[in-house]
């Protein structure tokens, strides 16, 4: 018989979910479980450690997504080019 994972008891070395939404959902469930106050000290510490791993995973996923995001920038000659998000457009006179 297979049991569903208990957010209050994350085994050491448990892998992170395959996508950001699942990571976030698991993290939110852990927070609710911790806030309930129904966990022993050991279970709370285990949940906290799992939460830290999930936060790190989510942060890494967001950083990777940010690197992949591109914006189209119109150059002064009217052509479009891709530039990393946050870069000033080429030929933009508004930059110092």
UniProtKB/TrEMBL annotation:
SUPFAM superfamilies: XseB-like. Residues 73-96 are annotated as: Disordered. It holds the Pfam family Exonuc_VII_S. Keywords: Cytoplasm, Exonuclease, Hydrolase, Nuclease. The keyword Cytoplasm applies. It catalyses: Exonucleolytic cleavage in either 5'- to 3'- or 3'- to 5'-direction to yield nucleoside 5'-phosphates. One of its GO terms (molecular function) is exodeoxyribonuclease VII activity. PANTHER family: EXODEOXYRIBONUCLEASE 7 SMALL SUBUNIT (PTHR34137:SF1). This is Exodeoxyribonuclease 7 small subunit. It comes from Kushneria aurantia.
């Amino acid at each position: 018989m297979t049991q569903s994972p208990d957010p209050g008891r994350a085994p050491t070395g448990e892998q992170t979910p395959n996508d950001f939404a699942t990571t976030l959902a698991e993290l939110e469930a852990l927070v609710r479980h911790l806030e309930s106050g129904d966990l022993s000290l050991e279970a709370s510490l285990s949940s906290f450690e799992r939460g830290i791993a999930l936060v790190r995973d989510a942060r890494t996923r967001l950083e990777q997504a940010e690197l992949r995001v591109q914006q189209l920038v119109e150059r002064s000659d009217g052509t479009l080019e891709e530039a990393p998000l946050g870069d000033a457009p080429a030929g933009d006179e508004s930059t110092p």
